[in-house]
Sequence orphan (Zalerion maritima), 310 residues
Amino acid sequence: MKGDGSSPGGSPPPAPPPLAFGTGKKVDHVDISTKPVGKWNTKNLALRLGSDFLSAASAAVMVAPIISIVDRSIMENASGRATLVASLHSSLKTLLLRPHSIIFSKPFALIFMLYGGTYLTANTLDTATSTIQNKPATHVTSGTLKFAASSAANVGLCIYKDQVFVRMFGPAGVAPRAVPMASYALFTARDCMTIFASFNVPPILGPYFEKKFSEDTKKLISGLTAAQFLAPAAVQLVSTPMHLLGLDLYNRRAERKGNFMHPSLADRWAAVRKNWAISTAARICRIVPAFGVGGVVNFKVRENLMGKLS
């Protein structure tokens, strides 16, 4: 029977090729039944985790000497042990003449722990993601989870480091005491501001710089790169006073004298204002190795090692 859509033998005609959704174009049939579902990329997993650690350690070793020296100088300047310049001069001289006394010191170990732990957190999160999502070992993630994990590690370890530093380099001749909760709160606020400026601000500020930069400037530095250095450096103008106030609350215990507390808020603000400029400059100088050099070394070493393991 003609016109009934049947083939001569009575069987239905083959179905036409499907159309790509929303295009009207014919596409070949794809068999998805053989596609692995839920498969993890566990190839060389132990070696990949070892590479995560080695990358983080390499970056931390690079930045720890100078950052430990700068942090010590700020602490000693705030406590009155030594001026910032004198402390820097003494520590840098020691680094040049007796580097082992710096490298095997407690301040170095604390800074190594701080940045090694931060980089390792980010690295292992990348490895976990590439494993679970079956992606190449070189895969690098970005987004809220990585930011939150890295920030939590950095802030927590930095607060621990600071409460040790403030007791090590507090006022000379004064027995170490417990760090006040107000100091912990100020240190936390300080670090949150730096993390926010380092990770959240550059993607917003970068495009603005890109529009303002001339073509010659863009050949030297991109808008995003400029923002990655300028944003965390600029926020030190605001976060450094928090740091100094947290140190002052430890260095000078509040005591009641008559109807007034000593030192007063005015006294503390005077101490903060006195050291504001030089401490801000020092903290800006530590930002470059901490969030620039260290991040680049960690990324490059990990990229190279993971490339060999893929």
User: Anything to note?
Assistant: The domain at 45-309 is CATH 1.50.40 (Mitochondrial carrier fold).
